């Protein structure tokens, strides 16, 4: 495969996080994240354009961003971002979301896709549109994981529950990581 045309490396210092996995875990094919540990690393950011290769891997973490949601108005997708943790790459798709989504799902037939709010992100990616059966196939084959729902179930099993289950709370509770994602960041996505 080739690398998309526009790439750069993000070196976050102590502010960015991604899993550090042992060589033994990688060789054994062990999946998943460590429960706690050193999460600081560099990763490559790839700006995807139609025709570029799509992410591949045993696990892909997926998130979408939309324009500000206004009650009664259509949801307008702005971008999708996909983390390929094994290769320490983050793919950002701003153009050609339909092609990106279709190829990512159809070229990764055994991949586990991890979302924080899967119902919303899958809706943004076109779950209910004609010709999107490949998303339903991933759901039916149990290759969609929603860490938001898992967090709620975990809290219930511990006798805990609150009305909060946002990604920042999950990261802090499970990993001890503080995410910098407030409303000023979440509500400022625009097309172009």
In short:
By secondary structure, the protein is of the alpha/beta class.
Largest sheet entry:
7 strands, mixed
Structural class, from secondary structure content? alpha/beta
The count of strands amounts to 7
**What average pLDDT do the residues reach?**
78
Name the assembly state: single chain
- Helix-strand string: EHEEEEHEHHEHHH
Structural shape: globular
* Rg value: 17 Å
Total helices: the number is: 7
Spans with pLDDT under 50 lasting ≥5 residues? 10-26, 32-38
Descriptive keywords:
single chain, 192 residues, seven-stranded mixed sheet, 7 helices, 7 strands, 20% strand
Task: Describe what this molecule looks like in 3D.
The chain has 192 residues and is an alpha/beta fold. 29% of the residues lie in helices and 20% in strands. The chain contains seven helices and seven strands. The protein has helices spanning 23-28, 97-107, 118-124, 133-140, 147-157, 167-175, 183-186; strands spanning 6-10, 43-48, 59-66, 77-84, 89-93, 112-115, 144-146. It has a seven-stranded mixed beta sheet. A hairpin with a 4-residue loop joins strand 4 (77-84) and strand 5. The two termini are 27 Å apart.
Strand and helix layout:
Elements: E1 6-10, H1 23-28, E2 43-48, E3 59-66, E4 77-84, E5 89-93, H2 97-107, E6 112-115, H3 118-124, H4 133-140, E7 144-146, H5 147-157, H6 167-175, H7 183-186
Parallel strand pairs: 2-5, 3-6, 6-7
Antiparallel strand pairs: 1-2, 3-4, 4-5
């Amino acid at each position: 495969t080739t690398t998309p045309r526009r790439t750069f490396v993000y070196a976050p210092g102590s502010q960015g996080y991604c899993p550090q996995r042992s060589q033994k875990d990688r060789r054994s094919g062990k999946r998943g994240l460590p429960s706690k540990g050193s999460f600081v690393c560099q990763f490559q950011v790839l700006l995807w354009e139609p025709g570029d290769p799509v992410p591949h891997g045993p696990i892909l973490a997926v998130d979408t961003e939309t324009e500000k949601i206004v009650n009664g108005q259509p949801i307008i997708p702005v971008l999708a971002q996909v983390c390929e943790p094994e290769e320490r790459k983050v793919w950002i798709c701003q153009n050609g979301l339909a092609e990106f989504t279709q190829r990512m799902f159809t070229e990764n037939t055994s991949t586990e896709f991890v979302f924080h709010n899967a119902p919303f992100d899958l809706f943004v990616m076109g779950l209910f549109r004609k010709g999107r059966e490949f998303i339903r196939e991933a759901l039916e084959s149990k290759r969609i994981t929603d860490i938001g729902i898992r967090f709620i179930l975990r809290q219930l099993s511990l006798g805990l529950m609150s009305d909060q289950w946002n990604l920042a709370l999950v990261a802090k509770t499970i990993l001890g990581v503080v995410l910098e994602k407030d409303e000023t960041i979440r509500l400022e996505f625009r097309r172009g």
